[in-house]
Write a structure and sequence with these properties.
The complex is a heterodimer. Chain A is α/β, with parallel strands linked by helices. Helix content of chain A is 36%, strand content 23%. Chain A has 10 helices and 14 strands. In chain A, strands 1, 2, 3, 4, 5, 6, 7, 8, 13 and 14 form a 10-stranded mixed beta sheet that branches. In chain A, strands 9-12-11-10 form a 4-stranded antiparallel beta sheet, with helices on one face. In chain A, α5 runs parallel beside α6. In chain B, 28% of the residues lie in helices and 22% in strands. The longest helix of chain B has 19 residues. Chain B is an alpha/beta fold. In chain B, strands 1-2-3-4-5-6-7-11 form an 8-stranded parallel beta barrel, surrounded by 6 helices. In chain B, strands 16-15-20-13-14-19-17-18 form an 8-stranded antiparallel beta sheet, with helices on one face. Chain B has a two-stranded antiparallel sheet with strand order 8-9. The chains are: A alpha/beta, B alpha/beta. Chains A and B meet through α3, α4, α5, α6 and β9 of A and α3, α5, α6, α7 and α8 of B. β10 of chain A pairs antiparallel with β8 of chain B.
């Protein structure tokens, strides 16, 4: 298992210094939920500057008709760059990829929808190579998927989980309503009953909401490594370098060494909790419910 | 040329029958499992069979939603379930998780596959992708404009279904798990707790931050939908009441028929608008159809969801001899109340209630007990399954 880092700035020298060799990069105009996106030219420059790194491209916005002509040309260009893979949300990318018989491996990345092994196998049959599992399923579900599909699997192990994405400009609309200027990148909102905080950001693709609890996937990481998951993904957005510079080596050690005693695992988890100042394991150990009354 | 389809939701057998009687060409329903309205009453296999028999006897169709986003644990038994509901007679599956498409394609040649709006399909290439998979129809995302819908239809020739009425998601369907994070209820498996309708505190601001949207109402643009080649017009609301469904479906039926019969007038649209506004408890807009959705399509602090008591009774029977209807009371009314009865055929009669009798024939000073069986005299023949509502002067606003 390797770390795959989605950086928060275009300058990846810090991550390279940390020994990161796999990157997930946004592409301007076709990526959502990310602060930093490259143009095609910037991407080419980066690949020239860092020829030893492997790069996945994140194309995760919902595509509209007007996006299609450009995206076809972009996919052709990307196919010449020997990328490690392309993350896709919209099946239009899969469709174009199939139609043009492109070579770059695809990563099924429908955020909250990557939740079972049958659909993994469906995409495998469509020629897809990887899947980034949803953050809303449990570790047990992930491990079962691992057993029942040949797709290469990725799991988000660190980041502020994206909860929802709207095409609407919800912050702009709100500030228009209260006759004020929207002047920040990230806003914090609080839910009235549970008093939990959430983060809201808006860009040209719409508005995204994030959990303000930093997902700390250290505890499940041991099982993911043992089960031979391909990548543990770090979304750096809003995480400072001080924390990253401490947690990355810890993750690298876990991934390299693989086997640990329970005491050692506990010790790693405690250390990670301390570094990240968060012990939130998201849904790794928490099942969601969906029927709140008996139905017939 | 095929006429455009009016597609109604139905949360149970009673509402399914009413929706079809009031003019829906087809209904979409959920089974007890695998449907995105996990907390609606929903249909057992026996009820699905009865629903299909009833619909088919009227030359109409039943579509079954199997549109949850499956977790591993939901996979057990799914294929047996699909076999059973096909045997029960359903005409199409509405699916979002694509692994089901292959199974249906392979096993049931005569059952259509419709891709749910849960997939948030927003472009023609994605529609083409599903066409190649054997999909007959795609329910488009609600974020599309008229021109975008038209371009998709022109380029793909796939049957396209669009929403025309009802509640809207704030977020792309399938791209929202607020409910999971805030209330631990899985939105993509039918447990959505509608967190988008909560009011949040926004740090540094006094005014609550809300993101709730107004409902959708496309009554003015049905003609446009027909002209651009939309195949099916979908009304939202498997958890809506019988009165809501009868009113909304009956109203759109009237509009669609008027368009095809070249009888559409501004007065009719105005009247339909009024009826649709009365039955709703939220303001409405057309959202993305004509422009990018903006602040005018949303609700902010201070909104109220008002429910009126317009619905007075459900007509069980009409006695030609006594010219009386037998009705089940729904809300309070009294002699002297101006009412109208609207019928499955679209006919409406208006009158003033003269006398109210209970089943024993005793005269009552008012109808005070919902569910009580009552008799009142009416000035004309009334169809079974009609509904009585308050006659509201058209200038009044809710």
């Amino acid at each position: 298992m390797q770390l795959l880092v989605c950086p928060k700035t275009k300058d990846i020298s810090f991550e390279v210094e940390q020994g990161i060799t796999s990157f997930l990069l946004g592409l301007k105009g076709y990526t959502t939920n990310q602060d930093c996106c490259y143009t095609l030219e910037e991407l080419k420059d980066l690949l020239n500057k860092y020829p030893h790194i492997e790069v996945f491209i994140l194309l995760n916005k919902n595509l509209f008709n007007k996006d299609l002509l450009n995206i076809e040309e972009i996919l052709k260009e990307l196919d010449k760059l020997s990328l490690k893979g392309i993350f896709f949300y919209d099946q239009a990318i899969l469709s174009i990829h199939q139609r043009l018989a492109l070579k770059t491996p695809l990563v099924w990345n429908q955020t909250h929808l990557v939740t079972n092994y049958n659909t993994c196998n469906y995409y495998l049959n469509q020629g897809v190579s990887y899947a980034l599992l949803a953050s809303e399923i449990t570790l047990d579900e992930m491990l079962e998927i691992r057993k029942k599909t040949s797709l290469n699997l990725m799991v988000t192990i660190l980041g502020y989980p994206v909860m929802s994405h709207s095409h609407r400009k919800l912050l702009t609309n709100y500030f228009k309503f209260i006759h004020k200027e929207k002047d920040k990148k990230t806003y914090e909102i609080t839910e009235p009953v549970g008093k939990q905080n959430y983060l809201v950001q808006e860009d040209e693709t719409g508005t995204s909401f994030y959990d303000a609890l930093l997902l700390n996937g250290t505890k499940p990481l041991f099982s993911l490594v043992e089960a031979d998951f391909s990548y543990g993904v770090i979304f750096e957005k809003e995480i400072d370098n001080k924390k990253l510079s401490k947690i990355i080596p810890l993750y690298q050690k876990i991934m390299k060494q693989g086997k640990f005693t329970d005491e050692e695992k506990d010790s790693f988890v405690q250390e990670a909790n301390h570094i990240l100042q968060s012990d939130s394991t998201g849904f790794f150990y928490k099942r969601t419910i969906y029927k709140v009354k008996k139905n017939g | 040329m095929d006429r455009i389809e009016l597609l109604s939701p139905a949360g149970d057998l009673q509402r399914l029958k009413l929706a079809l009687l009031y003019g829906a060409d087809a209904v979409y329903i959920g089974g007890r499992d695998y449907s995105l309205r996990a907390n609606a009453t929903n249909f057992s296999i026996e009820e699905i069979k009865e629903a299909c028999t009833f619909a088919h006897s009227l030359g109409k169709k039943v579509y079954l939603t199997v549109n949850i986003v499956f977790h591993n644990e939901d996979l057990e038994g799914i294929f047996d379930y699909l076999d059973k509901v096909v045997e029960a007679g359903i005409d199409a599956f509405i699916v979002s998780d694509p692994f089901i498409i292959s199974y249906i394609k392979e096993h049931f040649k005569d059952v259509e596959i419709h891709v749910s709006t849960q997939n948030s399909t927003t472009n023609y290439e994605t529609v083409e992708f599903f066409k190649k998979q054997g999909v007959k129809r795609v329910v488009l995302a609600r974020e599309l404009s008229k021109n975008e819908i038209k371009e998709i239809i022109d380029k793909t020739k796939v049957d396209i279904e669009v929403f025309i009425h009802g509640a809207m998601c704030t977020f792309f369907s399938g791209r929202c798990t607020l409910s999971n994070y805030v209330t631990n209820r899985d939105s993509n498996r039918g447990g959505c707790s509608q967190v988008c309708r909560f009011a949040f505190a926004l740090k540094g601001e006094e005014t609550k931050f809300t993101m709730a949207t107004k409902d959708l109402n496309m009554a003015h643009y049905i003609k446009d939908m027909i002209e651009i080649g939309v195949k099916s017009l979908k009304v939202e609301g498997r958890m809506r009441s019988e009165y809501y469904l009868a009113t909304v479906i009956g109203t759109y039926r009237k509009l669609i028929d008027a368009i095809y019969n070249d009888e559409l007038t501004s007065d009719l649209i105005k009247e339909c608008d009024f009826i649709l506004d009365r039955v709703a408890n939220r303001a409405t807009s057309t959202h993305y159809f004509l422009k990018e959705a903006d602040e005018t399509d949303q609700y902010y602090t201070g909104r109220q969801e008002l429910s009126n008591q317009d619905y007075l009774g459900y007509i069980l029977d009409y006695d030609e001899k006594t010219q009386e209807v037998l009705l089940t009371e729904r809300n309070y009314f009294e002699p002297g109340t101006d009412v109208e009865i609207f019928m499955p055929s679209g006919k409406v009669i208006e009158f003033t209630v003269q006398e109210i009798k209970n089943q024993e024939g005793n005269i009552l000073d008012a109808a005070r007990h919902p569910e009580e069986l009552l008799k009142i005299k009416v000035p004309d023949v009334v169809e079974k399954d009609s509904m009585m509502r308050i006659k509201v002067p058209r200038k009044e606003v809710v």
